[in-house]
Amino acid sequence: MDSSEPPFQETYKTFLESCTSYENDDVIVEECELPVVDLRRLSGGEEEREECEREIAMASREWGFFQVVSHGISSEVLEKMRADQARVFRRPFREKSDDWKMKLAAGSYRWGTPSATSLRQLSWSEAFHVPLSNMSGYSSLSSAMEEFARKVSKLAQKLAEILAEKMGHRSTFFRENCLPSTCYLRMNRYPPCPIPADLFGLIAHTDSDFLTILHQDDIGGLQLVKDGKWIAVKPNKEALIINIGDLFQAWSNGVYRSVEHRVVVNKTAERFSTAYFFCPSYETVIESCIEPSVYKRFSFGQFRQQVQEDVRKFGYKIGLSRFVV
Questions:
Q1: In angstroms, rounded to a whole number, what is the distance separating the alpha carbons of residues 214 and 152?
Q2: 228 CB neighbour count, 10 Å cutoff
Q3: Which of 72, 95, 204, 268 has the highest local Cβ count within 10 Å?
Q4: Residue 264 confidence (pLDDT) above 90
Q5: Helices (H), the chain
Q6: Is 271 a catalytic residue?
Q7: Mean pLDDT value across residues 234-247
Q8: What is the C-alpha to C-alpha distance for residues 286 and 33, in angstroms, rounded to an integer?
Q9: Pseudo-torsion of CA 311, 271, 199, 125, nearest 10°?
Q10: Do 123 and 186 touch, CB atoms closer than 8 A?
Q11: How does residue 237 score in pLDDT terms, banded at 50, 70 and 90?
């Protein structure tokens, strides 16, 4: 039977043979628990709701990351979704990489880092990108994935509105511009890695959307920058992780923070996660809701094009610093 594993060691043989041990910055990364927000309080009295919204805004300012519980997605749905995900990734590699056989859009299955010019730019992972506008075409996924997508879409809209209101803006911007046709899911798998000290599942980056909503398993591996240091996020299978993306940082004029994060790999265990990306159309213009603005006006399409050009040229994303006034 054909292996389901992408041919990392064959494809990146030159990198792997010439590597020296970086030991992931040669520091011990402390494990911390992200701020936890219980969303049941949004349905409580005015004072309770206000306190919950205040915590969401504070975490978005101070951490750029937080986690939510009582999010309305049952553990049964999450477990079923994870089982579907594992089944899709365990298909033979030749099937996964053949768009015609998988009935997927071109480019929807990705693994490794085609633009990598060194070991430190290589992501030891594989992923399926699933547009919300085309979920019905993914026969390998059950209704659990559709239910997850539907509920996190509503959650993203709600959180975006809360964050806007906390800046004094009651705007229809997000409902008008972040639609199912512009948002997508990414199913991630991080295979066991023979040299975990030298590689990352995902190299350090910020997300290019407004908000990302992530469900991860209990293996752990997500790390983020807090107060200038990398910290490891303690996994919580019952919670969803929310993080601010570049577009929200630009829209909020830097009030909400898009924080650098990465995924470390494990020598023996595989890790799964599912991420929802709250994105506008490429034509949507992003401009600060506060003056004077730190950032130039730009469309999401312009931002994505610049990111892609930088990755091709330098092997990594530069991001918002390209758009500072």
A1: 9
A2: 5
A3: 204
A4: yes
A5: 8-11, 13-18, 46-62, 75-89, 93-96, 99-102, 143-165, 173-177, 246-251, 300-314
A6: yes
A7: 95
A8: 32
A9: -40
A10: no
A11: confident
pLDDT grade for 1, boundaries at 50, 70 and 90: very low
**Other Cβ atoms within 10 Å of 323 Cβ, number:** 18
CA–CA gap between residue 312 and residue 308 (Å, rounded): 6
Over residues 129-140, mean pLDDT = 74
Please state, in angstroms and rounded to a whole number, the distance separating the CA atoms of residues 173 and 159: 13
The whole model's pTM is what?
Answer: 0.93
How far apart CA 105 and CA 99 sit, in angstroms, is 6
Position 325 pLDDT exceeds 60: yes
298-301: list long-range contacts, CB under 8 Å, 24+ apart: 298/250, 298/323, 300/247
Amino acid of residue 15: F
Catalytic residue, chosen from 40, 150, 271, 322, is 271
| pLDDT of 236 over the 80 cut | yes
Pairing of strands 36-38, 65-69: parallel
Instruction: Identify the pLDDT of residue 79.
Output: 93
DSSP 148-183: HHHHHHHHHHHHHHHHHHTTT----HHHHH--TTT-
Mean pLDDT of 7-28: 73
Q: Domains of the chain (ranges plus CATH)?
A: 23-291 (2.60.120.330)
The band of 18, judged by pLDDT with boundaries at 50, 70 and 90, is confident
